[in-house]
Amino acid sequence: xxxxxxxxxxxxxxxxxxxxxxxxxxxxxxxxxxxxxxxxxxxxxxxxxxxxxxxxxxxxxxxxxxxxxxxxxxxxxxxxxxxxxxxxxxxxxxxxxxxxxxxxxxxxxxxxxxxxxxxxxxxxxxxxxxxxxxxxxxxxxxxxxxxxxxxxxxxxxxxxxxxxxxxxxxxxxxxxxxxxxxxxxxxxxxxxxxxxxxxxxxxxxxxxxxxxxxxxxxxxxxxxxxxxxxxxxxxxxxxxxxxxxxxxxxxxxxxxxxxxxxxxxxxxxxxxxxxxxxxxxxxxxxxxxxxxxxxxxxxxxxxxxxxxxxxxxxxxxxxxxxxxxxxxxxxxxxxxxxxxxxxxxxxxxxxxxxxxxxxxxxxxxxxxxxxxxxxxxxxxxxxxxxxxxxxxxxxxxxxxxxxxxxxxxxxxxxxxxxxxxxxxxxxxxxxxxxxxxxxxxxxxxxxxxxxxxxxxxxxxxxxxxxxxxxxxxxxxxxxxxxxxxxxxxxxxxxxxxxxxxxxxxxxxxxxxxxxxxxxxxxxxxxxxxxxxxxxxxxxxxxxxxxxxxxxxxxxxxxxxxxxxxxxxxxxxxxxxxxxxxxxxxxxxxxxxxxxxxxxxxxxxxxxxxxxxxxxxxxxxxxxxxxxxxxxxxxxxxxxxxxxxxxxxxxxxxxxxxxxxxxxxxxxxxxxxxxxxxxxxxxxxxxxxxxxxxxxxxxxxxxx
Amino acid sequence: xxxxxxxxxxxxxxxxxxxxxxxxxxxxxxxxxxxxxxxxxxxxxxxxxxxxxxxxxxxxxxxxxxxxxxxxxxxxxxxxxxxxxxxxxxxxxxxxxxxxxxxxxxxxxxxxxxxxxxxxxxxxxxxxxxxxxxxxxxxxxxxxxxxxxxxxxxxxxxxxxxxxxxxxxxxxxxxxxxxxxxxxxxxxxxxxxxxxxxxxxxxxxxxxxxxxxxxxxxxxxxxxxxxxxxxxxxxxxxxxxxxxxxxxxxxxxxxxxxxxxxxxxxxxxxxxxxxxxxxxxxxxxxxxxxxxxxxxxxxxxxxxxxx
Lengths: 703, 307
Fold this sequence. Notes:
The complex is a heterodimer. Chain A contains 25 helices and 18 strands. By secondary structure, chain A is of the alpha+beta class. Chain A has five domains: about 1-60 and about 115-205, Alpha-Beta Plaits (2-Layer Sandwich), CATH 3.30.70; about 75-110, no CATH class; about 230-335, no CATH class; about 355-545, no CATH class; about 575-700, Isoleucyl-tRNA Synthetase, Domain 1 (Orthogonal Bundle). The radius of gyration of chain A is 36 Å and the shape is flat. Chain B is built from eight helices and nine strands. Chain B has helices spanning about 10-25, 45, 95-105, 170-175, 195-215, 220-235, 250-270, 275-295, and strands spanning about 25-30, 55-65, 80-90, 115-120, 120-125, 130-140, 140-150, 155, 160-165. In chain B, strands 1, 2, 3, 4, 5, 6, 7, 8 and 9 form a nine-stranded mixed β-sheet that branches. In chain B, a hairpin with a 4-residue loop joins strand 5 (about 120-125) and strand 6.
């Protein structure tokens, strides 16, 4: 048994690529070792900005010797066939063995594959891993032809056991593997040798390199919290930034600075975004004032002045950045107070999509739609329209020009500054939401109206110009828009007749109406609307599947009338899902499907529809009569429950049919000789089918 | 930050960089005598990055970015500024160390400062060029661009050049501890005639800002763009041999016209007369010129062609 240590030492690896690179190195090397016949106990991968490291413990010394048996030609086959066989096996005739086979004697060869030493296999596997490493972007350097993420300087590759460490014999494009590495670029630049992973990690630490990214993260977190705590402040948590910063330093040293008073009037989102995006600073919050008043920067070095020079420099850079931000903010506020007319005009010249007009055109469509659907979401139509007209004006502000991620956030500030009420200002901030499957859904009516209008306009627009998502390509994020529509409707329980609304949008918009002169060329609404609705239904399935509702249950519900009302669909599916998890529910489904199958077969055979006139007087058995009674009771109960949209009650009512249906099928043969009785029973089955159909299409339910 | 090693003026920083890179074996060239947007446009970088011949050069390049004009009022933004450019082909294995040495030379000691290499890939759509590298941060400020050229003019760079670009004003302001570029000492503050950056450039920043934004004759600029484009194409298509029968392809004169076209485009952009959709088309036209020049250069001696 031996332990393997690999380090690939290079110029600075981009922080965002390190986690993936660790996993790739581990996978490529361990897979390669295992394929070559070695086994190992455990493996771990690490990274710093300048190195990728892999440790493999408990690696076998050799791959096993294996024997392969191969069947050749018959002993009486022509000489040529035997020669070919000898060539392919690399053996001589006296090494072959003649054995009896079904059709006579056949030559057999036994080929022995000698096991190979681990070092040879490691050399081969590592070279292969280096040459085929899946970096997102790689480069050449100097006069060489090798590719790596940045210039590769050295390879450390040693196998160690009780007897000591051996360097693996390996040269890749002029870089020969050795047993040395280097410490921190500035604090410990000299090379040193290592004998194994523990020795390596310990010596690196002495050389001011913390090998483990997780350790660097927790170190940064702890140092930052200590610094903030000492001042009575709190660090604003930011996991993404933390992991990025941990990929930028080998030896993290957190330093805390104070934001100058003159910048404290800037919105906190501006401070935080500017510090994070430009400087990779963490924000610190003063809980007493509720404001962001400080920052934490993480240096990569311990200095004789305890970071004073570094902190002063960072402070200066931040001041220059925030001066810019303050300049943007003040200019923007002036424009906001004067009514934002210049921004509105500016959006005329911003193309949204060359077939769908400018941002201004789009805003006009969204405003009209927001007004139109306002009553459906409980919003004031004037407010909804006004909010839609203002919601995107911040796209022309200097601040959003600098920090696009602040769109909406700035819109809210500027709308308030322009004297708009909260409901309208909030819509500017919230109308982009929800952006994913789990972020917050707006609930304020005006915000909901604008958010829905925005997404519905996007969907109808891109469907009209036939730019639908295909496969993994969804450049206009239409799946996200559709999911947004669904979440807005379902979360807010909005009674929105989807296809009516969509038809209405399309009919009112000249642009989207291909039949109209000057409209976009593309499919006609008659062609694309059903497609768009089924796209929304597909997204709904994905949404519900994530909530644990089976796709066949959703299909069963979508096959019903009323599938235009997504809230109803979700409620029905949820109730049905709950019922089907019970034994009663499963048996009931069987019964309903059996009834439906028998009926469908009979209807096909007889060419008539059995849908009326079942009469208890033709009932022959108690079970038949009991089913009549049960249906008499269940039918109105289901009807009432469905009318009141009380789906659990409907489920209870239909579930009561389970026992009578089971008993009926147990006792009665539907297809009996007497035509009168057969017809009567088929008509009875039809009542069962109808009872089920009121709730869902049970034939679509699996199992 | 006072130390005996600290430079005292803008020009001292330039002189120290010149001396440093001269001792490292670079040919110290002079600025290219045309209007360019960045030091990369100097043929000593764009063209010399092509082909197999070794190369090492360093120079100051005055650079013009008309849209960045702020009438001399913004503490950091200028429509005319200086870049310091180093290009070495093939990129030496110790290029990072050489670079860090240049920071020491101008008084930035990496043992006291926080110097970091932060991912930043470089791309010039007008030159059809890209490379991978970093922006170098000193105490959170970007002080240089560090790039390994992968392609120029659509051609793979073999060998690869290492390119360093220092934004001189910003770097010098940091080293000298100055808040506003116009306040920065240009020569030694103890000189008989001490001059600030503002003494030298404030008025020109105002004049050019006005001309760039309000006055430049766009009709004329459009015409000049067309002229430069046509002349570049004509030079590229000219016969390789002259009337005396000598083979002299004219890669550099053609490239001058490409540079001109590029700057004219920048001027038109600053005047706001190029729409978003047209922008891409103009960039594509300049790129086509640069690519033609690169193709032709590779057939020349300096481009490594063996006759």
